[in-house]
Amino acid sequence: MESITIKVSDEMAAEIEKAMKPHYSTKTEFVREAMRDKIKQIQSDRFLQALKKFQGAAKVHVSDEQLHATREKIAREYAKKFGVKLD
């Protein structure tokens, strides 16, 4: 495990103390969790940015009516498969 040392202002340390109670017993535990959350957020943002490159890139246009009909068909198939009666 690698150690990372950081310095924060007295005000920031006080804010950390307030925010961490009662869920975290140490500042280290609190900061680790905050870093994990930030890393997940960055990864999610990167994924969404990459995904946006493909928005509208489909070669076939599907209308809302076609999507609705497809959803209805699949719902009927699953209802039949699992013995669920649809109205």
Summing up helix and strand content along with how strands pair, one would put the structural category as: mainly alpha
What is the mean predicted local confidence, pLDDT? 92
Q: Which residues form runs of ≥5 with pLDDT under 50? A: none
The helix-strand sequence is HHH
Summed up, the domain count is 1
Percentage of residues in DSSP E strands:
under 5%
Report, as a whole number of angstroms, the end-to-end distance.
Answer: 59 Å
Radius of gyration: 25 Å
Individual helix count: 3
Task: Summarize the main sheet.
Answer: none
The percentage helix is: 55-70%
Count all strands and give the number: 0
So what's the overall shape?
A: elongated
How does this model look, in words?
By secondary structure, this protein is an all-alpha fold. The protein has one domain (10-82). Helix content is 64%, strand content 0%. The longest helix has 26 residues, at 27-52. The chain is elongated and about 60 Å long. The mean pLDDT is 92.
